[in-house]
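Annotated sample (chain length 133).
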Amino acid sequence: MKTKVTFITAALFLVSFFGFALEFPGEEFQKKDTMQQTFDIRINKDNLVVLRASSISDKRRSFIVKVYSEKGSLLYASTYIRKGDALIPFDISKFPKGKYTFNVYKGFTKVYRKEILKNLNIRNQDILVEIKK
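Output written by the structure step:
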């Protein structure tokens, strides 16, 4: 008889516990980040790399940008906290020619990667052309 009472008590406890858990889920575990943020990186003719972070929310969002050389050396790292859209310029005119990788992280997760190829070492210099007859 004591075993039957213990079993029924345990069964009632489990039913009431799971019923309560289904009715009131713990919000801290159920929240989903519905904010969508997109990233794009472009280079212009003046060796200016522009990161565009677009957001459909007005919430403050943070992300980390890291720039690596083609040998894998970390050249630059910074955390940005922005509200809405952001344009962030990177001047690579003083970098030697080569390939550079721009990584964007949200926390510890890499969410965007872009390789930029810098072909010229000179910036805004006049080109002297000699015409021979």
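Annotation: Residues 16 and 22 are 10 Å apart (CA to CA).
Annotation: Confidence is low (pLDDT under 50) at residues 11-34, 122-133.
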